[in-house]
Amino acid sequence: xxxxxxxxxxxxxxxxxxxxxxxxxxxxxxxxxxxxxxxxxxxxxxxxxxxxxxxxxxxxxxxxxxxxxxxxxxxxxxxxxxxxxxxxxxxxxxxxxxxxxxxxxxxxxxxxxxxxxxxxxxxxxxxxxxxxxxxxxxxxxxxxxxxxxxxxxxxxxxxxxxxxxxxxxxxxxxxxxxxxxxxxxxxxxxxxxxxxxxxxxxxxxxxxxxxxxxxxxxxxxxxxxxxxxxxxxxxxxxxxxxxxxxxxxxxxxxxxxxxxxxxxxxxxxxxxxxxxxxxxxxxxxxxxxxxxxxxxxxxxxxxxxxxxxxxxxxxxxxxxxxxxxxxxxxxxxxxxxxxxxxxxxxxxxxxxxxxxxxxxxxxxxxxxxxxx
Length: 372
Prior knowledge:
Layout: E1 17-18, H1 24-27, E2 39-40, H2 43-52, E3 75-77, E4 80-87, E5 94-101, E6 104-108, H3 119-127, E7 135-139, H4 155-167, E8 173-176, H5 182-194, E9 198-201, H6 203-211, E10 225-227, H7 231-240, H8 243-249, H9 256-261, E11 266-270, H10 275-280, E12 288-291, H11 295-299, H12 304-312, E13 317-319, H13 328-338, E14 342-346, H14 354-357
Parallel strand pairs: 1-2, 6-7, 7-14, 8-11, 8-12, 9-10, 9-11, 12-13
Antiparallel strand pairs: 3-4, 4-5, 5-6
Helix pairs in contact: 2-6, 3-13, 4-5
């Protein structure tokens, strides 16, 4: 935990906590603080985390009530003026945040990119940046992943690659991605429509998609979407009496026999909990496994049992993914547009590289206090 007084709720000078977006590395420590501390975040992000929590193991944090962001509209927190800016990121409802107080202006980039389905948000931020910024807290997650002049594939590129993979797959296409990566779910559905396949989701995914509150995001009752409940989830439904939730999303529910009959015309939004069901149901002939997440998880052996399962069933793996973070070229474009007095590295494995890439860089360590 950071060395901040009041995280236990016993120091009124801690006015609240601002969360940029619903990725665990940004909100996970909320489970260890007092529920009395107000939490600011996007309203859709708040709903997504609430919808996800019952399905996930452990003490999954559900943010306390607080400020709901509206992009471009400021709100006051004690002596601070806070303005959130909706940004393009692989997490839904993600924001950069401007903090103003006592004549000082600090801009926190959050996690952002310029190659997703909301790339126009990045271009708008560059065209109309916040002004008079004293300090820019700049993420650099992508540093070290590309050559300095390279660009990540766009989400449209990912859709095209998925179309090619689906077309080459004789049986069931298994796409392993996060249900909370809404851009990717949209890309998968669009690729399904272009190849005559139906997208199959589970109840967790159905709940996440509905929590976005966006009628343009794929939903369980869309004709191109089907609901399949794996055994592990059926047990959750029974143990937690989620029968109303299941009924709410069951308009397009399918069962083993449906999946078996339509393998060549189906794409499953896959999670490892599907493995026993697919193996028992003999649904893997001609299947392809498409890994659509950060490759680091795979390289660090986070999926050892899954690798064994794929090998046992002779299922080939291909990777189709793009980063949720801006490449260097776009980060430099952002810094040029904002023109801050100083740039402070955050969210990066290479903070010392910033001085080579940007002007007026100050590197600060975690838990060090310093003045904007």
